[in-house]
Amino acid sequence: MKYILDQLIKQVGIKELEIILVDSGSTDGSIQNLPGPNIKVIKIPSQKFSHSYARNLGVKQAKFETILFLTQDAIPPNEQWLSSFLAKFQTYQVSAATCSERKRPGDLSDLHNRVDQFCHYEKLLKLGSSDQIYSIHKNNDPTEIRKGSSLNNVACLYKKSVLKKFKFRGNFAEDLDLGYRLIQKGHKTAILGSIHVLHSHNRRPSYNIKRAYISTTVGEKIFPGQKFISMDIDGVIPEILSFYNYICANKKKFKLGTLKNKTDITNTLNSVFNVNRQTSRNFELSENNYNDSEFFNFLTFLKQNQTQHHLHTKHIQFNFLARIKALNDYIQQPEITVEEITQENLFENLIKMFADSCGFCLGNSYLNDRNNNLNVEIRNRLSHSV
């Protein structure tokens, strides 16, 4: 936290900077060792925290018309970052502007996180180093509106007057929700590829499954009329168990040192994971093949609630194969080295991708039948700590 605050204080080209911290019961001593006397701290009980509540509280205390939201793990890459960001915001005359993300130098962000960023900024938004301006008057296409809604409070500029009128809502994807409402009301938003913040993570499968689950179920609330895929929980569970066993059965093929070049990596991924490949019919969970007891315990819970012992759909497999294609696309970028891929345990990243697919399919199962007791129990287990 202190390092990030130092980087903010060092920003040049800004006439006056007000820094407000909203602290929800931190215990690491970070707010006791602040690098400047003019940093305002708003303390709230941890039980009252939600992303929307904390941000709306900060807006009420802010004195300037332009507000920057920056998470505690997002780092400005240089001392001109904020002035450059602000100049774009003012030039484009938008109500909100968000910038892209890049891996922090020397950071232990995982392959899963880097592929995630690649998919969002390069494959979905197609940013590169360009900037995109969105408004409902410019393009009323639902896909373009969703892109323009993709505000990201990791680092995002807003007009205070807009925030006071619309306010953040909900405890997850509050930025996406606000972006959609702004577009619908005729406001312009900007997604900037020319400006980036340093931000990356190395998270566990137990986090990935929750995030994918909540993203799926919340997305249906944010975007009215969004179609979900018809899935039933009794059919999804055996898919999850059998595909987990199939990935684990191929674990040795992804060990460090066995893949020598990009062709090796791509060929092995395509050979093991393709639509014609018969996955495991084994529904037993014989061992924890990844060091995340929370994720394995959740799979065990699914096993205990399994009612079908045959496979009749391939929802998990098809979703996972789409993620494998994205991984291959990422690998084939000229700047990506073999060492960057093979220095990590590729198997661990495949398990994280599998967790994403599980969250997506379980989320769709819930949307298909919200009154099913097992769907409700799964929702209770996955809808927290994200």
Please describe what this structure looks like:
This protein is 47% helix and 11% strand. The chain is an alpha/beta fold. The protein folds into two domains: 2-202, Alpha-Beta Complex (Spore Coat Polysaccharide Biosynthesis Protein SpsA, Chain A); 221-382, no CATH class. The strands form two sheets. It has a five-stranded mixed β-sheet, sandwiched between helices. Helix 9 runs antiparallel to helix 14, helix 12 crosses helix 14 (346-368) and helix 14 (346-368) crosses helix 15. It is globular, with a radius of gyration of 22 Å. The model has no long low-confidence stretch (mean pLDDT 89).
Q: Could you describe the largest sheet, including whether it forms a barrel?
A: 5 strands, mixed
Annotation, overall tally of beta strands:
7
CATH superfamily of the largest domain: Spore Coat Polysaccharide Biosynthesis Protein SpsA, Chain A
Q: From N to C, what is the helix and strand string? A: HEEHEHEHEHEHHEHHHHHHHH
**What is the CA-atom radius of gyration, in angstroms?**
22 Å
Total of domains: 2
Which CATH architecture of the largest domain? Answer: Alpha-Beta Complex
Helix content: 40-55%
Cα(first) to Cα(last) distance is: 20 Å
Q: Strands of the biggest beta sheet: in what spatial order?
A: 3-6-4-7-5
Summarize the structure.
The chain has helices spanning 2-9, 51-61, 81-92, 111-124, 142-148, 160-166, 174-184, 205-222, 233-249, 262-272, 293-304, 315-331, 338-342, 346-368, 373-382; strands at residues 19-23, 39-43, 66-70, 96-102, 131-134, 155-159, 189-198. It has 386 residues and is of the alpha/beta class. Helix 8 (205-222) runs parallel beside helix 14 (346-368).
